[in-house]
Write a structure and sequence with these properties.
Structural class: alpha+beta
CATH class of the largest domain: Mainly Alpha
CATH topology of the largest domain: Glycosyltransferase
Shape: globular
Largest sheet: 5 strands, mixed
Radius of gyration: 27 Å
Number of helices: 27
Helix content: 40-55%
Distance between the termini: 49 Å
Length: about 725
């Protein structure tokens, strides 16, 4: 991009800046303004000598008043390279002096402000062709970007300019060529605004889009190690979930094979925490061996869901076991006493990435003993000299249990038990190590994903305590993260703050909908519909369809952005479309479905360009294309005959189905108010009764679980 090149050239003009600082920089012993914040990320920087501000009116007004550029740094508390940049640059008195003299410095936690992050990530990607965190952006006082990048070292390194040369160069350019920078910032902002405001190419949602995404996935698939593309590899489980939907629709065996191969490699790889459960954020290599060790809440929720979907299809017990381990980790280590779920655990401890998680032979053998220890280390790939830093090894499974047992001349079942005992013993030792930092803020959106995963797990695995945990989290969000009936985004240390974004409404509504279908409590369906209607009111683009990231009642940013492609988490607009389609079908609300279909049609142009980049929107398209099934189970949810019918539904992968539970008597009034059509679908002959409809055309009802199983075959 020529504009980006010009901006970078201007920003890096090499000169020494001169001038007088407007305020004295804080010392290391004097906290800066971030000390008053609740964000763990901002608090990590509260004792920097940099004169940091949080994003807000005070900082923005100062930039306008003093006509200084804004140095904007965006990251999150478990970001490894954010820690590196802090240690190298933001704790440096020399670099802090340059920042304080020439800039108004603002720190932003991207997890508190995803809409703000998306705007400036879009700008930096346009300028440089890449993005990531820490995100470093220099803005005009009017918040328009003219220089950006990601991590910068203190001195020039790896062909990256250093902060010590970069900051004086930008300051000199601001002093001597301000008009040029202002003009460049205006052109960039106008160009991005024009691109974002352009009416998207509309089109019909057709099966050909799903076919194109499948072929794109097949071309990128790594047949030797699973996953897509080359290193680094992310476990983008929503891509796998799309392929499962494609398999369900078409019967294409390759789609299912790509999913199971990837899930198998993930489960055996070093990216999985084999002792404590859960998954690390991504793999630095193509074989899933050496991870980036941070553990993100959203990865746990999304991966658990995909493993459970695959379990419903294949009935492979190892997939259920992986999901159970994820939930055990989350409920043990990421759950607040009030029921909400924390955000993440860091990659670093004691200043080293992965130190808490890696092992040497010398650490394992004394704990497990020579015989069990040597067998354990062979199974989990721990060798003399290791394959990670300082001669350590990352636990991973080099071959499946059955094959290893055969080589060892052992039965698989007792071997599995001995390995489990060894894992428990090593976890007890690991728990005495210095733990990585835990980001204990509670985000509405990510909690929605975990509520959905736990509810789906409760239904799939018949585990009531998962449903209870999901319900407690939903209660917490509704009690602690609402104000005047509107969602807030973040809770920490007793404080709920920041208006809910699109993903908060979409993800939480999705969680409530799954909670309803798993347990049948109509309250959750009512809350899901209420919030979905608010989402439409606050975020929908009335002119062109689709959904903005920031609500219409909030102060507008320099760009009014929408999400099209899925990243580490699904795009908010895609989840919104899924929620509206399912709620519309479940409650027979044609207007709600219509808004979702309009969003799909407006996204058709983007989907045609890079279909596999939007797997969640393609999942919505799969639902919209139908045929769908509307299932009503009429009966007392506590009775054995109702449970037998529900078991048939919950045990199958039915991505184009919705489920209503219709209790008898007064208890059924709540669901009848939300979905009036169920009034005619009650118990027959005093028995629990199942009704299966396709596009609201119903087959004969049944009280026989085996007959229901036949009716639930793919329409």
């Amino acid at each position: 991009m020529a504009l980006a090149g010009a901006l970078i050239a201007v920003g890096l003009a090499g000169c020494t800046a001169h001038g007088t600082a407007s305020s004295m920089p804080p010392t290391m012993s004097t906290p800066n303004r971030l000390i008053h914040e609740k964000s763990p990320y901002l608090l990590q920087h509260a004792h920097n000598p940099v004169d940091w501000y949080p994003w807000g009116e005070e900082a923005l007004a100062r930039a306008v008043q003093e006509q200084k550029p804004i140095f904007l740094s965006i990251g999150y508390s478990t970001c490894h390279w954010c820690h590196v940049m802090e240690r190298e640059s933001f704790e440096s008195p020399e670099i802090a002096e340059l920042l304080n003299r020439w800039f108004v410095c603002i720190k932003v936690d991207r997890e508190e402000h995803p809409d703000l992050d998306q705007v400036y990530m879009t700008a930096v990607t346009a300028m440089t062709g890449q993005g990531g965190w820490p995100l470093t952006v220099v803005l005009t006082p009017e918040r328009k970007p003219f220089f950006g990048g990601t991590y910068f070292p203190p001195e020039r390194r790896w062909n990256r300019p250093g902060m010590k040369e970069l900051l004086p160069a930008i300051a000199e350019a601001w002093q001597q060529r301000r008009d040029e920078l202002l003009s460049s910032a205006e052109r960039l902002t106008a160009s991005l605004s024009e691109a974002l405001a352009a009416t998207p190419t509309s089109g019909a949602i057709a099966p050909a889009l799903l076919d194109a995404a499948f072929h794109q996935a097949a071309d990128a698939f790594d047949a030797s190690s699973g996953g897509f593309g080359e290193a680094p590899k992310f476990p983008r489980s929503h891509e796998l979930s799309f392929l499962l939907r494609y398999w369900r629709r078409t019967g294409t065996a390759q789609a299912l094979e790509m999913v199971t191969a990837t899930l198998d490699h993930l489960a055996r790889g070093g990216i999985r925490d084999h002792l404590g459960g859960g998954f690390h954020r991504y793999s630095t290599d193509a074989q899933w061996l050496v991870p980036h060790f941070e553990k993100m809440h959203y990865d746990q929720a999304l991966l658990a869901t995909t493993y459970l979907e695959a379990y419903r299809i294949t009935r492979r017990d190892e997939y259920a076991a992986v999901a159970r381990e994820i939930f055990e980790y989350v409920l043990r280590d990421l759950t607040d006493s009030r029921g909400g779920f924390y955000s993440a655990e860091d990659a670093d401890s004691e200043g080293e990435e992965g130190k808490c998680y890696v092992w040497t032979l010398e650490e394992i053998l004394p704990v497990l003993g020579p015989e069990d220890g040597e067998r354990f280390t062979r199974f989990y790939g721990v060798a003399a000299g290791g394959h990670f830093e300082h001669g350590a090894s990352i636990l991973h499974i080099e071959q499946p249990l059955d094959a290893f047992a055969k080589l060892e001349g052992l039965e698989a079942a007792p071997l599995a038990q001995r390995l489990a005992e060894g894992r428990a013993m090593l976890l007890a030792v690991r728990n005495r190590r210095v733990r990585p930092h835990r980001d204990d803020k509670i985000l509405t959106s990510w909690n929605g994903l975990m509520i959905a995963a736990l509810a789906y797990g409760a239904a799939t695995l018949e585990e009531p305590h998962y449903l209870q945990a999901a319900g407690r989290a939903a209660e917490f969000i509704l009690e602690a993260l609402q104000r005047d009936g509107r969602l807030l985004r973040r809770f920490r240390d007793g404080e709920a703050r920041f208006a809910g974004t699109l993903e908060d409404y979409a993800f939480f509504s999705h969680g409530l909908l799954e909670l309803y279908e798993a347990g049948g409590d109509a309250r959750w369906l009512a809350e899901a519909k209420r919030l979905a209607m608010q989402m439409v009111e606050q975020f929908r683009d009335e002119q062109d369809g689709g959904f903005f990231l920031r609500g219409r009642d909030e102060v507008r940013l320099i760009l009014q952005a929408k999400e099209v492609y899925d990243g580490a988490t699904p795009a908010g607009g895609s989840v919104a479309a899924c929620v509206l389609l399912r709620l519309g079908r479940l409650t027979a609300d044609a207007a709600m479905e219509g808004r979702a279909r309009q969003a799909l049609e407006r996204a058709a142009g983007h989907l045609a360009q890079a279909p596999f980049g939007s797997p969640v929107m393609l999942g919505a398209a799969d639902f919209a294309l139908g045929p769908t099934q509307e299932i009503v189970i009429a009966g007392d949810p506590q009775s054995a005959d109702t449970a037998a019918l529900l078991r048939q539904v919950h045990g199958r992968f039915l991505p184009r189905a919705v489920l209503a539970v219709h209790p008898p008597g007064p208890a059924g009034a709540s669901i009848e108010a939300l979905a009036p059509y169920v009034k005619a679908q009650g118990m027959l002959r005093g028995q629990a009764t199942a009704y299966v409809c396709e596009q609201f055309i119903c087959k004969l009802p049944t009280s026989d679980p085996d007959r229901l199983a036949q009716l639930l075959q793919e329409p």
